[in-house]
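Please decode residue identities from the backbone states below.
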């Protein structure tokens, strides 16, 4: 029999958000420092930039990518591009530590053989937000999106299949991993404006990794 002590950390409870969506609190705590280091290395080759939407708005979230393709936006639309339009070079390769984490989180959530093509890296500072949207630029509509939160906490807005559906608010902290696949793949979601703060791993920023099966 195992004995629980008051000083033990709380057991890691995987929270089922809805069918196909699982929140793995603290799943990436141990790897978080290495993941942030890798983000800094990636950003030396493919700098964070503020993309322009097809509607002409400049996004408050700064983005870069690694992997076989990267998500980009400009006045002509959204797309996955094998080349970074800022440099004309391929995106940096996906680090082994990224892939290992994404695959093990997907497996923990019930998605075997996950093989992400892309990792979009979002960087938020105070005031940055992501409006309510669906991620529907990926061909594979069943494979999950795996999301890893690093640094400052954020309030994640999570709605339903229609834009007008009611939203829940979920606080995401550094090391939290969320997996959204299957029937939960097309729920509307967003991120509330980031609050100012300081975090030992990322300073004044929140970084979010989203792994995607594109093809
Ligand atoms: C639910 N990023 O990059 S991650 C995005 O925190 C994006 O930066 C947010 O939404 C962020 O597109 C949220 C959590 C997430 C990601 C994808 C989802 C939740 C999702 C796809 C379907 C449903
Ligand atoms: Fe999204």
């Amino acid at each position: 029999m195992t004995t629980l002590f008051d000083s033990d950390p709380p057991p890691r409870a995987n929270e089922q958000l809805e069918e196909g969506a699982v929140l793995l609190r603290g799943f990436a705590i141990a790897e978080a420092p290495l993941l942030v280091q890798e983000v800094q290395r990636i950003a030396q080759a493919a700098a964070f930039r503020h993309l322009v939407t097809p509607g002409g708005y400049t996004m408050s979230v700064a983005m870069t990518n690694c992997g076989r393709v990267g998500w980009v936006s400009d006045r002509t639309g959204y797309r996955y591009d094998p080349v970074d339009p800022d440099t004309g070079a391929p995106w940096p390769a996906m680090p082994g530590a990224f892939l290992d984490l994404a695959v093990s989180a997907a497996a923990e959530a019930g998605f075997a053989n996950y093989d992400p093509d892309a990792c979009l890296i979002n960087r938020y500072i105070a005031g940055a937000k992501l409006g309510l949207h669906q991620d529907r630029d990926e061909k594979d509509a069943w494979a999950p999106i795996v999301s890893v939160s690093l640094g400052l906490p954020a309030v994640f807005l999570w709605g339903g299949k229609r834009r007008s559906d009611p939203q829940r608010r979920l606080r995401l902290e550094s090391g939290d991993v969320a997996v959204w696949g299957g029937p939960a793949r097309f729920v509307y979601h967003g991120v509330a404006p980031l609050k100012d703060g300081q975090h030992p791993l990322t300073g004044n920023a929140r970084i979010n990794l989203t792994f995607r099966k594109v093809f």
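Observation: Helices lie at 32-45, 96-108.
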